[in-house]
User: Fold this.
Amino acid sequence: VGSNAGVSRWTGGGFETLIDGSLLPRPMVYSLYSDRHEQLWVGTRGGLARVSADRPQPLIIDAIGQPQINDLVEQGDRLWVASSAGLHLVEGGEVTAVALDGAAPAARVLLLDRDQQLWVGSQSGLYRQQGDAFALVGEAALDRTFVTGLRQLADGRLIVGTYDQGMAVGRPGQWRWYGSADGLLSDSVFHLGISEDYLWVSHPDGFYRIRLTELGNDVLRPEALLRDTGDNPKRSRLRCCNGAGQNKGIISDDSYWLPSLGGAVRIPIASEAEQPPTVQLLSLPNGPLPAEAIALQTLPRDLDLRYGAVDFRAADQLRYRYRLRGYEQTWVDAGTRRQAIYTNLPKGDFVFEVQARRLHGTWGPISAVDVNAVPVLLETWYAQSVMALLALMLTSLVIRWRMGRLQRQKLALESVVTERTQALKQANLRLQDLNQELITASITDSLTGLRNRRQLREQIEPMLQRLAEQAHPEARAMGLVLLDIDHFKRINDAHGHAAGDAVLTEVAAVIRRLTVAEDLCLRWGGEEFLVVRPLITIGALAKLADGLRVAIGQIEVAPLSAGEVRASVGCFAFLPESRASFLHWQKALSLADYALYAAKSAGRDRTAEVELLQPALLAVDLALTAEQVREWIDQGAAELRWHPSPMPSAKENR
Assistant:
């Protein structure tokens, strides 16, 4: 036995000094371990010493320093030491500090399991040996708790005691936690011991045991063997069972030995478990309890019961709970209160139940008394039947009156709804017409009646997609015809804007006359017009373009005669592709514009057609400029054709 004065030995009738504390690093002995060489290792509050048969004088292990030695265990030829400075290894006369997952927390307890694997309980979690290293077990709760005890059951499960979190039973990844809410007498575990049938547990206020067969149940039923809360001044100096760790308890001579502040405590392991207290139902406020059931015959039905249990050793540790079965299912935790009060109870038959236990102990047997809440007159079945009949008759009258009123309101409402529905329908039709007019106006040129650029933006991509999906490429070319009225400014200047507007209107009429329904005809801006024909062969495009030019030359608008209104036309045809069709369209429009520019530059009243001899050029990722088109023509990648041909030599600015 280690004490504040060294090491003592039990002789059967008392203790004798084995090692005087003055010979140790510190006189206060905190842990003891006997190795396989029959050497006794003495851990103190400030260092480690070794005593052997051939050297009774303690050998102080200076290399370990002066930490508090908490636990020791052998693993083959190696001795592991848990201390306040961390984990140390004593091997071959050398002492080595061993890190725990890269840290050095204070090590408290050691366990060598059946597989010769070392477990280390520290003040900051549980570690498991993995080769020459140690790692946290990976359980969130165990990785941050203060471990105070480690034991292994016969089936291989571990029991981990903690300083303030109860204890865990199981294996890595399969832990079952127990605390005071699950039956433990305390959330603190100081020492764990295992015998054939029981798990023995010491805690700050005493000592109890649990049958091993219960470990794994949802709720444990511990048997208290010793209580010592220290509240009694005459007992506070004893305080069993102080100290946490593997060395803080041992079974010997059919007794369990535990440390206390006043010496060693010996408890026979065959001791009977402490019996829980039994509650006595004492009285009602106005007298003793009746021999049979308590009858509540008047309103309000209030119940006031007094109860109590007798305990001559620890009356201040008694705790109570009660419930009124039939009225409530859960127990009311009354603490130390010995009175139960219920107010305004309903009628019915109930059972009042009460239990007591000592602090952190198991609940004792239930004491019960019947409670009969007698119904008053208005609560009897015949009184309630009469009231129900009257209520039914009144309800019937109210319902009939209410139904008639609702029917009248329904007819009036239906009439109003019909009128307003019809009005709303007319308003919706008018709104649809107005919306359609607005849509048409937003995409129509007000002077010529042709569509504008907005219509093109909305329709061009769907049109390109449809063409890209055509089965025969020769039937899905898209043609672009871009025409511009020649010398339109001269017409406005010479004859006025009214004449110019009339010319624009007639040009639009010519375009409508020579195009088909599938064509998209637009006033492109000013005196420019654009015709998009979605289905045309490349050879027929020039014929359409030049036909428009010729027809415009025949326009007669007062005061202009035939031949005074002329136009220059540029056209281009291409095959839309399913991918990048819109990009191709923009480049195609630029090529048609280039053709128009060429017609203007060649003397006006011309139709110019650009044909790409290498259609893949449309997919080239570059900005298309007039210089680029001229370069393609010069290189033979594109060709510029004229209608009528050949191209005249005279050139004018556009």
